[in-house]
Amino acid sequence: MKGVLVLGLSYMYILMCSLFFISIQMSMILNECLRLYPPIISLVRKVEKEVRLGKLIIPANVELHIPSLALHHEPEFWGQEVELFKPERFAEGVVKATNNNIGTFLPFGTGPRNCVGFDYTTTEAKIALSMILQCYTFTFSQGYVHSPFHYVTLRPQHGVQVTVILHSL
Ligand code: HEM
């Protein structure tokens, strides 16, 4: 009886570790997608009263536009391989990936007005991806043209055509 319990707990532990590991890997992939192609390409903040920001003094009522897309593509923070798709840059978290400049990674904004859908969206994406990848493999179709395009949000101008292969039931 004790042996069965120990075996059961060991299996559960291995399963939990595997799920944790898969979840981290998916976060790395999602983060890298959102770094290269953040749906929201800039944030806006209005200054309520005069404020000092580094060497700048910003008067009240000024609107600040924070260019997330530009920050996500800045070699100073991301290194010379900034344009490459490298999920492994997030292997040790956002702080390491941004070289201690977390303000340079803003797919969901920042501060008290950041995205309320952050947890929901990332969890949903991970669940959907893991369900799809259990049964299907997909690659880009020959007709796919890579053309990120900004119209309210950043999106593929001609859609994303993929070839889907069923690999198990
Ligand atoms: C990939 C999906 C999503 C992305 C990339 C995204 C990104 C963002 C960004 C950049 C902001 C502005 C944050 C700021 O100004 O600091 C925002 C705000 C917001 N998002 Fe999302 N979002 C996503 C999905 C969702 C979903 C699914 C919901 C609702 C369930 C949602 C609800 C909101 C709301 C209500 C705000 C305004 C928050 C406030 O002003 O206090 N978002 N989102």
Mean pLDDT: 93
Broad structural category: alpha+beta
Give the helix level as a range of percent: 25-40%
**How many DSSP helices?**
5
For the biggest β-sheet, the strand order reads: 1-4
Family: Belongs to the cytochrome P450 family.
EC number: 1.14.14.115
Transmembrane segments: 12-30
Binding site for heme: 115
Describe, in plain words, how this protein is organized in 3D:
- It is a single chain.
- With 169 residues, this protein is α+β, with helices and mostly antiparallel strands.
- The chain has a domain at 19-133.
- 39% of the residues lie in helices and 19% in strands.
- The chain has a two-stranded antiparallel sheet with strand order 1-4.
- Strand 6 (148-151) and strand 7 (153-156) form a beta hairpin.
- Helix 1 (2-36) crosses helix 5.
- The radius of gyration is 21 Å and the shape is globular.
- 9% of the residues are buried.
- The model has no long low-confidence stretch (mean pLDDT 93).
- The site of protoporphyrin IX containing FE has 15 residues, from helix 5.
Provide a compact summary of the structure.
The chain has helices at residues 2-36, 68-72, 75-78, 94-97, 118-135; strands at residues 43-46, 51-53, 56-58, 63-66, 136-140, 148-151, 153-156, 162-166. The protein is of the alpha+beta class and 169 residues long.
Write the layout of secondary structure elements.
Elements: H1 2-36, E1 43-46, E2 51-53, E3 56-58, E4 63-66, H2 68-72, H3 75-78, H4 94-97, H5 118-135, E5 136-140, E6 148-151, E7 153-156, E8 162-166
Antiparallel strand pairs: 1-4, 2-3, 5-8, 6-7
Bound molecules: protoporphyrin IX containing FE.
Residues 39-40, 43, 107-111, 113-117, 120-121 line the site of protoporphyrin IX containing FE.
EC number: 1.14.14.115
Protein name: Putative 11-oxo-beta-amyrin 30-oxidase
Transmembrane segments: 12-30
